[in-house]
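User: Need the bound-state model for magnesium ion:
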Amino acid sequence: MSRPPATSHDLTASKFCPPELDRERLPAHVAVIMDGNGRWAESRGLPRVMGHRAGVEALKATLRLCSDWGIGALTAYAFSTENWSRPGDEVNFLMTLFERVLQRELRTLEEEQVRIRFLGDLEALPLKLQELISDATDRTAGNGGIHFNVCTNYGGRRELVRAAQRLARQAANGDLAPEDIDENSLAAELFTAGEQDPDLLIRTSGEHRISNFLLWQLAYAEIHVTDVFWPDFNEKALKQALLDFQSRSRRFGGLDPLTP
Ligand code: IPE
Ligand code: IPE
Ligand code: MG
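Assistant: Bound-state model below.
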């Protein structure tokens, strides 16, 4: 895999899965609620938006680590349907930041074989951002590396309503019998269609809630909450989350295979 010149973040990153982790039992799909940007900035006497800028670096480093360590998919919560209620200046800063980062990083994503997609109601985003999203999605669609999903204007409830509407439309057209609606057909109408459900959900900044993220898909995810603010999330914190994941017994409603 070709790599761009090292940044300060790269200097600490390991190219290979750390020996403490069991490579055979890594999550195939990691979801992350990147929370605490504002508090990270405020704790340094900086404006909140500086936390968002620093958060981008943490996301880039996390993506690269997941890719290097062999995790198949990373889904990151970047902007919720509820985040529009923030002050206009902060919302505008975030939209401009998304545009700048996409423009700046697209070439690296292409080189590193990342397949990027944006999940959410994208029509409500600024036109320029929509164009950049569409270009980045198209240009990386054939890449064989990590699936990187960025949830932008995403809300789990809205996603489920949208799926219900799409199924209802098919039923009204006579293309689908209501009794044929099952978990697979509903999942196929979600933004995440085709992606397997996350095995691990990480939430930073110590908040123990889901905040309308992937309500359907997280049904059996293991949840790891860390007090670290998102901009401070690094290799050590990711390793900790993966070790925590590997210490869990996933029963999916059944019994532990080791139970006599
Ligand atoms: C998460 O950080 C980023 C977004 C929601 C866009 P916050 O901005 O929520 O930071 P805190 O939770 O206020 O510290
Ligand atoms: C969740 O964080 C949304 C994102 C990380 C994009 P919030 O900061 O918006 O969530 P709450 O308000 O603490 O639940
Ligand atoms: Mg927050």
